[in-house]
Write a structure and sequence with these properties.
single chain; 7-stranded mixed beta sheet; globular; 4 helices; alpha+beta; two-stranded antiparallel ribbon; Aminopeptidase
């Protein structure tokens, strides 16, 4: 089933009510680090030539875990998300989905949830960066109505107007 939701085109392959997003706790730190590595290491290796676990642990640790949310479907943790709010926008910092759970409609469904949150919080835009080499993510975002707002050295800054 496809629907148009304020410009956000989403293909629903899943039952949205089974998708849950909850605040991460210290108990989720290992999972967030693992999903981060599983989802992002291929794109990171294409950009930097390697994956650095120590560097990742500097930005995702006991002090920052509370800024993450864990995504689950039917009781299984499948990904993680990090969003920061500014005066007028959501700064969508990270979205990780386990590779074995990708291409099942979760990303599009999560984009719908983020849009609903932005509307509820009266935010005008959603912004985020994506590696230029992460074609799969770029395709997901474009499919859901996002556009490239700016080209940076290693990333595209993408946006969505609510």
């Amino acid at each position: 089933m496809k629907f148009l939701y304020l410009g956000l085109l989403t293909t629903m392959n899943i039952k949205l009510e089974k998708l849950k997003i909850r605040q991460a706790s210290i108990d989720d730190l290992f999972f967030v680090l693992e999903v981060q590595k599983a989802a992002m290491s291929p794109a990171t290796i294409r950009v930097y030539g390697s994956w650095n676990n120590d560097l990742q642990k500097k930005s995702t640790n006991e002090e920052t875990i509370s800024t993450y949310e864990v995504i689950s479907f039917s009781g299984r943790d499948i990904g993680a998300l990090q969003i920061f709010k500014t005066k007028t926008a959501f700064e969508f910092n990270r979205l990780y989905i386990l590779p074995k759970e990708q291409s099942k409609g979760y990303g599009s469904s999560i984009m719908k949830v983020i849009l609903e949150r932005a509307l509820k919080a009266e935010k005008k835009e959603i912004h985020f960066k994506v590696y230029k080499t992460n074609e799969r993510a770029i395709d997901l975002y474009k499919k859901n109505g996002c556009y490239i707002a700016e080209e940076l050295d290693l990333h595209f800054k993408m946006s969505y107007r609510v």
